[in-house]
Amino acid sequence: MKNIISVAFLMSFSIIAFAQTLPNAEFELWVDYGLFEEPELWNTPNPFTTIVSQNAITVSKSLDAYSGDYSAKLETIEIFGGDFQVPGVITLADINVDFISATYSISGGMALKENVSRLSGMYKYQGVEGDSATVLIYNFKRNNGGEIDTIGFGVGYLHDTTSWSSFTVNMENLNYHLPDTFNVIILSSATDLHSGSTLYIDSLTIETNTGIIKLGYDHISVNVYPNPSSDFVQFETKTIENERIIRVYNIAGKLISNIDFSNRRTKISVKEFPAGIYTYHVMQQNKLVNRGSFIKN
User: Fold this and answer.
1) Are 52 and 185 in the same domain?
2) pLDDT in 10s for each residue of the chain, 297 residues
3) Same domain, yes or no, for 43 and 120?
């Protein structure tokens, strides 16, 4: 029987948080590494599979796109003469491979201090022998002791379609804590891998209590403190910009405050806010440039 590099890690991967620039969600930007290309700010198995064989590429740039010029093509392939099968994978986190045990795991994610409720996107899929693609999303937070608090988790399966079709994966909240990291893992196969199963993916968005977010925006650094707070929250950045504001939303997604943020610093009084989690958007000329959450004690 063939040895299979399984995707059973979906329920047992290790998680190591790190901050990362928000990625392009329409897969328009690709980095050429010579033997293969990678979607910018996403990770794939390509750096590892091409060590085995230069032609062992699981993720590639496709001209078959739903929007823009390109999509990401994920394909389950065979390596070592067919003894092992590897799915095409894209993720915001690190991919870790152990060649000795022929196993791999995924760890980390994208810094996002909001509870994601769902991930949506467009896809085309052709599975082999009843195979299906897998989409996994999760939120988590690492506490001061380094322990992981998994806050939400969602899994969806994508089935055969020859035309571009929409999909949505909902997050199942395990608690109401505030996360600091979000990740998505998309694979060209389910638990039983079948070589040749092919997935095209494009136009990803995530949705929070404050609305739909495309996974890609021009980010500026904003320091928000103290957090949590019972009196005020201060916002601080490096530049002065006209037409820059802060929008604050409650946990139900209702806009409760608009504050001018043209100067480098501004302070928001939260004394009259009910205790709970609040989300903020920093907008510059009607463009989202930073987002996050704070807690009112």
Assistant:
1) yes
2) 344 444 444 433 333 322 223 467 899 989 888 889 999 889 899 988 888 889 999 999 999 999 999 999 999 999 888 788 899 999 998 887 776 676 777 888 887 878 888 999 999 999 999 999 999 999 998 877 777 889 999 999 999 999 999 999 999 989 878 888 899 999 999 988 999 999 999 999 988 766 666 665 557 888 899 988 999 999 999 999 988 999 998 876 778 999 999 999 999 999 999 988 788 888 887 777 887 778 888
3) yes
Those residues with Cβ within 8 angstroms of residue 207's Cβ, 6 or more apart along the chain or in another chain:
116, 117, 118, 119, 120, 213
pTM, two decimal places = 0.70
Q: The domain containing residue 232 runs over which residues?
A: 222-296
Q: Are residues 94 and 158 in the same domain?
A: yes
Residue 2 in domain = no
Is 140 found in the same domain as 239? no
Please state, in angstroms and rounded to a whole number, the distance separating the CA atoms of residues 41 and 68: 18
d(CA 144, CA 18): 14
